[in-house]
Amino acid sequence: MLQNLQIKNFALIEQLHIDFSDKLSIITGETGAGKSILLGALGLVLGNRADLTSLKDKEKKCVIEAHFKISDYKLKDFFLQNDLDYEDTTIIRREILPSGKSRAFVNDSPVNLQELQKLGNYLIDIHSQQQTRELSDEGYQMQIVDAIAGNRELIVDYKKQLSGLKKIQIQLAEAKERKADLTKEQDYNTFLLQELVDAKLKDGEQEELESELEKLSNVEFIKESLAKAISLTNDEQVGAMQTLKEVKTALQKVSTISGEYNQFFERVSSLLIELDDVTDELSQNFELLVDDPARLTLINQKLQLIYTLQKKHNVANVGELITIQNELESSALQSDELESTIEKLETELTNSKVKIDKVAVTLSEKRKAAIPVLTDKVTAILTQLGMPNARFNFEVKYSDSYYATGKDTMSLLFSANKGTDFGLLKKVASGGEMSRIMLSVKAVLAEYSKLPTIIFDEIDTGVSGEISNKMGDIMKAMSSGMQVFAITHLPQIAAKGDQHYKVFKTTQEETTVSELKLLSKDERVKEIAEMLSGKDISDSALNHARALLN
């Protein structure tokens, strides 16, 4: 419940500190006195956006602080999930700075507006004329029926499963899209892969083939050059081998004289051994050189194939071609894996739908069972409110689609009078009828769920006389189990309150100020009498006011 409210520098309010009871509190005042300002301040506490127009004095900050007793609301999990300090008496403070910045705190912990709005939904239900219009909304109608049906835990389960179902659907759609993209390219990729496979490429092969091609293309020139080199080395008269042997013999004679000459001798001996090895290898290589036109043709063909593939794939070497071949093979495997993934996801989707459908069916059945209870209770209350012939027809249809709270669609049809056909509520109910219907619905909901503090903002619009008296009785009955506020212009409702507050304007020097005052018993008599007869209060009005209060 809302225990007290403190407002500083907001709109026409300079400073206000007011305590509230846990029963039925009445708020009255002339039009424009500031009742909407009070609701605006509460709206900021509940997370509404603010701007500098909210500041009375633009040089000072605006502070709105509300104390809530929440021990009966079972909100410890909410505080834990949002990393907030839980207190049985929770303090929400909202500050608007002259710079235009806004800050919000819950038990002195900073929070953002989204968190504040979520918390606010558990604390106060401000029933305005706008919410009365929401009665025509299918989603709101479903919430009402679900509250009577006790579907809260089922809906939590359904939403969890729906989230999982949507996740699978997204994964399946993505997998199918990837598969479709691969399929479009598959034929061409298969052709490219086969080309590379048939080429039987090996890393480093191009360099080896180009070297062999160079040899085979110049075999005669190479043989001629090798033959000349061998001849110059092995000639018995002037060959390099014979000359080195003579140099070796000459140096051998002096090698024992000095280490220096011995070193020369050993170096020439090494040269002779190396030259002998080179000559043998040149001879072997010469013997292996064969003019092979067939091999030359094969190498040319293979290199031409490599060059063509390199140009097609825009790469510079065989290694890169092999990389592309591996990628194409991987792509083919990926297509097979995707097919397997799609089959797996389709099975998961089917199983998920079976599970969620069971919950959706249970929700639908419980709704259909709750609707007669709801309609009976609402029509009974409407009878008290002067609508004895009101009839409702909730049309619940089970569909193939998955909605936020099940697979049901709902239409609320209404008839206010005997002999008239049912029509959509928003089209056939007047403003006064809508107000009475909404009050009846709230009264029934109060029996089935722990509603937060509720504020009825002129729910008596379009009603008067005995009907307003009955509306006051209903609000009074609701206040036995919850905190109820009623902003009203009707004396019959005002007389039902446990506490009565008056909003009024005063002029202080050059400024206008709105104030909220808790009325004493005598002040209540005067206020209700004024509501009955206007500013000129008659004795009969005073007597009538006392009668209403008694």
TrEMBL record:
InterPro entries the UniProt entry points to: AAA_GajA/Old/RecF-like, DNA_recomb/repair_RecN, P-loop_NTPase
Gene Ontology biological process terms, A to Z: DNA recombination; double-strand break repair; SOS response
One GO MF term: ATP hydrolysis activity
Pfam families linked: AAA_15 (PF13175)
Coiled coil: 165-219, 328-355
GO cellular component, one term: bacterial nucleoid
Stretches assigned to the Endonuclease GajA/Old nuclease/RecF-like AAA domain: 1-494
Record has ATP-binding as a keyword: yes
UniProt keyword terms in alphabetical order: ATP-binding, Coiled coil, DNA damage, DNA repair, Nucleotide-binding
SUPFAM superfamilies found in the cross-reference section: P-loop containing nucleoside triphosphate hydrolases
Function statement: May be involved in recombinational repair of damaged DNA.
Family membership noted in the UniProt record: Belongs to the RecN family.
Protein name: DNA repair protein RecN
